[in-house]
Every structure is written in structure tokens, then in C-alpha cells.
Write a structure and sequence with these properties.
The chain is an alpha/beta fold and about 100 residues long. The protein contains four helices and seven strands; from the N terminus they run E-H-E-H-E-E-E-H-E-H-E.
Length: about 100
Amino acid sequence: MKSISVDDLAALGPDVSVIDVREEEEYAQACVPGTRNIPLSRFQQSLGDVPIGRTVYVMCASGGRSSRATAHLTAGGYDAVNVMGGITEWYRSGHPVNYQAGGK
């Protein structure tokens, strides 16, 4: 499975396709700007929301759920890359995060 660090992902710029597979409640609390939320709990039913024909970067809170989703996408013929450390590492590395009102 292909993986990428949060720093390398950030260096790619804002035009990459990033999917966050955390649940809606988690995503609503804090998310990486520009990501699309497709919760792992309904991932199979939402494959039509995954962009086709371009690399898709997959993240979650720390890397466990995203690695499962990345393996599933790769097996289905998608060019998918797991984001190591997820939003937790993204935040720790000082990259921007959007918070819901009253958060952080």
C-alpha cells in the first residue's frame, strides 16, 4: 500500500483530492481544509463519491481506518494513498485545521 507523510501531502498543495474517512461527528469537530468526508461506516455505499482518474489521498484520525479504506480502494482499481498519522499528525505538524464553533 502506498503511503505519504502529512508534510509531503501538504507540499502537494490544495488541488489534491483528500478523503477523510472519520465519522461525520468527528469530521464536524475538526477537519483539514478542502477534504471530503466519506465515513468508513458507509464507505462501500459511497464509492460513487470517490474521484476517479486521479490520485486520492485517504486520512482519518491516526491512520488505522484510512489504511483499511486505502486497501479497499486500491483493490478496486483506484490510485489511493494512505496519509500516515491522519489529522492528528497533520495538526501536530502545524498544518491548518478547521474547527467547529466553540472548538479548539
